Amino acid sequence: MVRNEKIRSIEKPPFSPPWYLKGPLVQTLLNSARFRNRGTGDFERNSKERIIDAGGGVRLQGFLSERKGSEARGLVILLHGWEGSAESAYMVSTGRYLYGEGFHVFRLNMRDHGESHHLNEGFFLGTLIDEAYGAVKEIVRRFTPGGKASLAGFSMGANFCIRIAKRASDEGYGGLGHVFAVNPPLDPLDSTERVDRVPIIRAYFLKKWKRSLGKKESLYPRLYDFRPVLSLDRCVPMTEELLRRFTSYVSLEDYFGRYNLREGYLEDVTIPLTLLTSEDDPIIPYGDIASSAKSPSVRFLLTKKGGHCGYLMNLRLEAWYLPLMAEAFRA
Q1: pLDDT in the model for residue 73
Q2: Starting at the edge strand that comes first in sequence, how are the strands of the sheet with 58-65 ordered?
Q3: What is the pLDDT of residue 70?
Q4: Where are the domains of the chain?
Q5: Residue 5: how many CB atoms within 10 A of its CB?
Q6: 38 — phi, psi (to 5°)?
Q7: Which of 159, 153, 141, 181 is nearest to 272 (CA)?
Q8: 57, 164, 170, 241, 258 from 133: Cα distances, Å
């Protein structure tokens, strides 16, 4: 256990949204609202698809928005949440902002997210850290030769970010500068159970997940018959049935335990890591992060409001955390 004097205290920045954005479900749902991304600009016009060799025969899709000339501050890699994609509203709005602040931006689609189901026979699991880490290293190698990249993720993508930061720390990998994790689930089983308890959030994820599994089955009908999975109406039973039929995991606890980050996981991270979460997140209890021992490299920001990955502060649905993220990456 890290000694108490080495553990950073919790910082409580004064984020206070207007009355019409205070509700946690309002923040959570508007975060993914497509109308946040009205119009197009240089960020979209300069976005080019890139297929990344993630190792082990795995290919992942991404979109690189490169700034012209030599004025760029560096590269930022963005990871979406579960059943999100490179085109999710929060990914595009974050990418636009960072691009405007002078960064190249790479939005990575994890396996079977966005329109990438055809790239790999196997389906997505939260345990696929090897390919996510391999993809980040390949992006750094290809697009920042001899340099570093920053990394940011949301929800499930934030969980991946923490695991990538931990592995990079353990291996002494020097390609990452700063990692920013927004509302990371440290206990993914608990978070999945919480999704099932909120009908509107459960319906949102079930619709997208079932559509994704349907795409996979249509592409690889000889490998998959998801009908017994798709007949279920909650995320936890669906996960259990999927694991039982198509993987070697012996239980939900076995599977989710492989990427549970609570017990001492943050103690040995040496790469600068910022964790942002809110007290009113309906999916992730902030106490999981607040009670975890952290290394001096980990900064923990806790707001009273913000919902799940929201932090929207005005009618334009601009995210309050964006200047903090850009400042961290500039440093």
Answers
A1: 86
A2: 47-55, 58-65, 103-108, 74-79, 149-154, 176-182, 273-278, 298-303
A3: 64
A4: 4-186+262-330
A5: 6
A6: -60, 145
A7: 181
A8: 14, 6, 13, 27, 15
Residue for token digits 């197009």?
40
Q: Torsion over CA of 126, 129, 133 and 134, rounded to 10 degrees?
A: -110
Three-class secondary structure of residue 91 per DSSP: helix
Residues 55, 328, 81, 287, Cα dihedral to 10°: 120
Question: What torsion, rounded to 10 degrees, do the Cα atoms 164, 269, 98, 10 define?
Answer: 130
Confidence band (pLDDT; 50, 70, 90) for 281?
Answer: very high
Residues 116-137 have pLDDT tens digits of 999 999 999 999 999 999 999 9
- Please choose, from the candidates 225, 233, 323, 203, the residue with its C-alpha nearest in 3D space to the C-alpha of residue 274: 323
Q: Give residue for tokens 């004097």.
A: 5
Residue 3 reports pLDDT greater than 50: no
pLDDT tens for 285-304 read 988 888 887 889 999 999 99
Res. 186 pLDDT band, cuts 50 70 90: very high
Helix (H) / strand (E) element for 323: namely helix 322-330
Burial class (CB in 10 A: 0-12, 13-18, 19+), 150: buried
Give the CATH fold of the 4-186+262-330 domain: Rossmann fold (3.40.50)
Contact between residue 122 and residue 111 where contact means Cβ atoms under 8 Å apart: yes
Structure tokens at 268: 């040995």
> Whole-angstrom Cα distance, residue 108 to residue 62?
4
Quickly state the pLDDT bin for 6 (edges 50, 70, 90): very low
